[in-house]
Amino acid sequence: MADIAGLAASAAGGGLFGLAGTVIGRAAGFFEQRSAQAHERARWTHEGELLKLQMQARAAESESELRLAEASGAWAGLAASLAAEAAIGESYKWVNAVRALTRPVLTVLLWAITGAVFAGADAAGRQGIVETATFAATAATLWWFGDRGARREAR
User: Fold this and answer.
1) Burial class (CB in 10 A: 0-12, 13-18, 19+), 10
2) What are the pLDDT digits (tens) for 63-79?
3) Model's pTM, two decimal places?
């Protein structure tokens, strides 16, 4: 009976730590997103100010139409360069597939190790080893897949 209670306590402890990891991950994601948005706002404000300064400099110089056409062509080249950079995409498909399979493969591996330890250990050594493996497998399952919940779209 003590073996079952210890195993249940390990599973519950692993579950609690897995849920805590999910909560911590979500909180970190919230602050990371907020920081990224603040960075983007600051970046666009800075770029807007730079564009205003550039327009003032062009107006003060009162250059000829030829210079204006050259500057216009330079901006078009920059826009084409930025468009080409954006078209590259995230990464290779196989890299994205490996990234997507990492959590499921590690989880199945942890549960396989737990089963192998349970099946292979003798009664005396089984208790501590199985509790530790159960804790790790439960924590991994709840943390890793708890983090995969549905994401809300930013408004």
Assistant:
1) buried
2) 666 666 666 776 676 57
3) 0.38
Consecutive H or E run containing 150: none
Sole residue written with tokens 């099946």:
119
Question: What angle do the packed helices 93-120 and 123-146 form, to 10 degrees?
Answer: 160
Q: Could you please report the per-residue DSSP string of 62-106?
A: T--HHHHHHHHHHHHHHHHHHHHHHTT-S--HHHHHHHHHHHHHH
Contact predicate 147/22, CB 8 Å: yes
b/e string for 119-153 if b means 16 or more Cβ within 10 A?
A: eeeeeeebeeebbebbbbbbbbbbbbebbeeeeee
Neighbours of 14 (CB within 10 A): 23
